[in-house]
Each structure stands twice: as structure tokens, then as C-alpha cells.
Specification:
GO terms for molecular function: serine-type peptidase activity. By secondary structure, the chain is of the alpha/beta class. Helices cover about 30% and strands about 15% of the residues. The protein has one domain: Alpha/Beta hydrolase fold, catalytic domain (Rossmann fold).
């Protein structure tokens, strides 16, 4: 299992159909999951309040519960080695997954992560 993450609070990111951007991973046999994070559009005020000045959270407790529920429902859904990758805020999220949830996420790839929110988009 590989989670493609971008949990920024400014939009919804889960595609409504298969995306060619993940095709190389699926051809290698990975199952790629994408879950909108807490604070994304179309969520309640409570979700936005959690994300406010707290992008490192990225809704990981909910994401982990989602993975566990999926693995309970589908026997082929193996959560013993979950990886995660993302770019920009998703890169920050991927690193946060390993730092704050190493018991669940085993590997991360971060591309162009914005690790200091004080400097992100200062222009």
C-alpha cells in the first residue's frame, strides 16, 4: 500500500477517476490510495479548525483508521508496510507521517516539501 498525500487545507485532491500519474506505481504492483485530509474543502468547520496553523496533523489519526477499516474489510489490503509520498505540502505530510506515526508508516518519499510554514508562499 502506498498513500499519495496532499493534505493542504485549500482544496479537495482525491481524483474521481484513475490518474495516469500513479500508473508507474500500479504497474509495479502497488495499490495507491489517496484520501483527502482534514481541513480540505467540503468538510465541516471542526475539520478546518484542526488544520488551522497545524498542517503537520494532516488528519493522520483518521487516515490510519481508514486504512485499518479497509484492511478489515478486504483481506488483500495489507497494512503491514504502508508507504507514503507527496510533494510540496504533501512532502511535509509524508515526512510528518514518519516522524509522528512511525508505528504505521514505514517509508516516505517527499518531493519539494515545504517544511517551514513561516516561509511558504512569503512572496
Amino acid at each position: 500500500m502506498v498513500e499519495h498525500i496532499y493534505a493542504g487545507p485549500t482544496g479537495s485532491f482525491v481524483p474521481k477517476s484513475f490518474s495516469a500519474s500513479i500508473e508507474p506505481l500500479t504497474q509495479l504492483g502497488f495499490i495507491v490510495i489517496q484520501i483527502d485530509g482534514m481541513g480540505t474543502n467540503h468538510r465541516s468547520r471542526a475539520f478546518h479548525d484542526i488544520a488551522w496553523k497545524n498542517l503537520r496533523d494532516a488528519g493522520f489519526p483518521d487516515r490510519i483508521l481508514w486504512h485499518k477499516a479497509a484492511s478489515a474489510k478486504y483481506l488483500w489490503y495489507d497494512i503491514s508496510n504502508v508507504g507514503i509520498f507527496g510533494a510540496s505540502a504533501g512532502g511535509q505530510n509524508a515526512v510528518s507521517a514518519l516522524l509522528f506515526h512511525p508505528d504505521f508508516y514505514k517509508v516516505a518519499v517527499a518531493n519539494s516539501g515545504c517544511y517551514d510554514n513561516r516561509l511558504d508562499k512569503i512572496w
